[in-house]
Write a structure and sequence with these properties.
Layout (H helix, E strand, L loop, with lengths): L23 H30 L4 H26 L6 H16 L7 H28 L6 H30 L1 H7 L1 H14 L13 H6 L3 H14 L6 H15 L1 H30 L4 H11 L1 H7 L6 H29 L5 H29 L1 H20 L6
Length: about 400
């Protein structure tokens, strides 16, 4: 008597059917990243104009962004820890998406700079809370053989939102005005939360015990802790790409004037995002064919190219085209492969805290890098780029020698 054919679980990859890695959960997470990024990039693009209308200085803008990034980094850490204690993580992710949407929409009612600060910090609190949970859901929706494609698709769709969002923002501000535009950011933000709620199917897991934050971090595999060290070292060279926009603008002002120089720099940044989007998906494909840690190490090493080109004489458009293009190329590899490589090093009981710690290490690295590279560039561009080159290659060497969990 024949055995009945077992029906696969909703998120289970089908053996021998490579295309089936794209199940409803992965698609739902990818679309949620796209819509959420459209929403908060709409607000981000118009936020400086709002602050200018409120009489806020550039120093206050820096304060707002610094506080928001700090809140987001620590939210990622504690969300990852807390989610390991839940039988179902998905409601935490849904709440995070809705909180981000609400924070961005609140800009419509701001009458002082500190209202923007509260809205931005609240929105980034939600963004931080959902990130490690999203990564766990993505990991559990696929298999190790397709981590690269799954994370690559999510990052590509997220970065596509960074291209679409500002374009929609500009069109809406011209059509209905600045403040009403912020209310429209609710639409893609709420859609993102609903996509997670309706499409993503979560596998229930046995909650981990309580324990302190430190004890949970110490429970992480030794190879993952080594991996975090490599990510942290490379992160010292991962400066904010808004510095590239600033440097390009300053370089072109004598030739083109302030307005055209700024427009050209922003156009190059859009090109950066296009390359970044393509790089995310392509690097994910490569990571499913070659050892992920090697692809990530190569991505870290590519940072040497734009750092070196920046030191070459001249301010030509071609020079900065190379800089922005290679920056988009290596950032796509970094952001895709850091998460998918981490997934190979983390067992189910510690995935939440593992992704949370990884995000926090990245956040701290971003802060240190941007501050250090920005300050060094004023004193000595050579010293600034040497820091980028040394840290990127150092991180690459550590990552390449990290072994995945067996």
């Amino acid at each position: 008597m024949g055995h009945a054919k077992r029906r696969p679980r909703p998120n289970e990859p089908i053996a021998g059917r490579g295309s089936r890695w794209l199940n409803r959960s992965i698609l739902g997470i990818g679309l949620a990243s796209l819509f959420s990024d459209v929403g908060h990039e709409m607000a981000t693009a118009a936020m400086p104009a709002l602050l200018a209308s409120l009489g806020a200085s550039s120093a206050l803008l820096g304060l707002i962004e610094g506080v928001a990034d700090g809140v987001s980094s620590f939210a990622k850490l504690f969300s990852g820890l807390y989610s390991d204690r839940l039988r179902r993580r998905k409601p935490l992710a849904v709440a995070g998406y809705f909180l981000t949407a609400s924070g961005m929409a609140s800009f419509a009612f701001a009458t002082s700079w500190w209202h923007v600060l509260l809205g931005r910090a609240g929105g980034w609190l939600g963004r931080g809370a959902r990130s490690p949970v999203r990564n766990v859901l993505l990991t559990e929706a696929t298999s190790p053989e397709t981590y690269g494609r799954a994370f690559g698709l999510e990052r590509a769709m997220d970065s596509a939102g960074a291209v679409i969002g500002p374009a929609i923002s500009v069109a809406l501000v011209a059509a209905i005005g600045l403040r009403p535009m912020f209310l429209w950011t609710l639409v893609p933000g709420v859609i993102a939360g609903l996509l997670i709620a309706c499409l993503v199917r979560e596998r229930s897991h046995e909650p981990s015990g309580a324990g302190t934050l430190w004890s949970n971090v110490r429970a992480l595999p030794s190879e993952f802790r080594r991996y975090l060290f490599g990510v942290g070292i490379a992160g010292i060279g991962d400066f904010s790409k808004t510095l590239l926009i600033l440097w390009a603008t300053q370089a072109w002002i004598p030739r083109f004037g302030p307005t055209r120089a700024a427009t050209l720099a922003m156009t190059f940044y859009i090109g950066y995002n296009v390359v970044y989007t393509i790089s995310c998906y392509v690097s994910g494909l490569l990571a499913d064919r070659f050892p992920k840690r090697w692809v990530l190490a190569m991505g870290y090493s590519v940072a040497v190219v734009p750092a070196t080109v920046l030191l070459l004489p001249g301010v030509s458009l071609g020079k900065f085209a190379i800089v922005f293009a290679f920056a988009g190329l290596y950032m796509g590899v970094w952001e895709t492969l850091e998460n998918s490589t981490a997934a190979t090093l983390l067992s189910a009981p510690v995935r939440g805290v593992g992704f949370g710690v990884l995000a926090t290490v990245n956040g701290i690295g971003d802060f240190i890098s941007s501050a250090a590279v920005g300050a060094l560039w004023v004193l000595s561009p050579i010293a600034a780029m040497i820091l980028v080159i040394v840290s990127s290659l150092g991180g690459a060497a550590i990552i390449a020698s990290t072994r995945p969990r067996t």
